[in-house]
Amino acid sequence: MDYIPAKHILVRNRSTAWFGTDHTMNLYRGCYHGCLYCDSRSDCYRIPDFDRVTAKANALPLLRDELARKVRPAFIGMGAMSDPYNPFEEALLLTRHALELIDAYGCDQSNLIAIMQEIQGEYKYLSEGALTLIAEKLGISTAKVYSVATFYENFSLEAKGRHIIKVCTGTACHVRKSGPIYDSLRDALGLTGKRKTSADGLFTLETVACLGACGLAPVMTIDGEVHAKMTPEDALALVEDIRRKEAATA
Questions:
Q1: Does pTM surpass 0.85?
Q2: Element (H or E) spanning 168, and its range?
Q3: Are 60 and 101 in contact (CB under 8 A)?
């Protein structure tokens, strides 16, 4: 059996028209059966040697990693290239072990952080409803889920804005006056108390301990883009530029 490299095992379907499935799982590439239906669609698969079967390298570790990031209920369909009747399956057992993984990741409490990361990745924050749903699905208390969400700084319980501003408060940036930059942005965005997101939902203002660019201090980022040697005036100008662009495309 030859192996080919693979980046993923699960492919999200564009619609659920194919037997109501949300994802298709293919552990092998190609199919040896030679059925007219699949052979006639080989151009669709873009596999010139469709009747030659190869296995995807590290298929099960890849699948395990993908499943750990899935939280919403979904139906996984067996693609033509996960054929349990494949003669190689008897020795490799890829399909059998894949099905065992899917079953195991249904409601495993050890996946709590991975589940929370996926939800935040999708919705940008963890709502009260999401925390309650996670607790119910995993059979743990809401208090435990909430304690994890508040322990790790990367989790946010507040809906984030379209643009994320992060001002560095590390030693180098602090010494070079990053504090006034943060204060000016906070005032300009109308933030009070513990609020981090502007009322119009455009901006979320955060601090970060270090951005690893001390030689460029003071530093801030907007949507991951680094802006060096900033002043309060420079920071406000960037925000206003984004506001103008957002207004122009509204």
A1: no
A2: strand 163-168
A3: yes
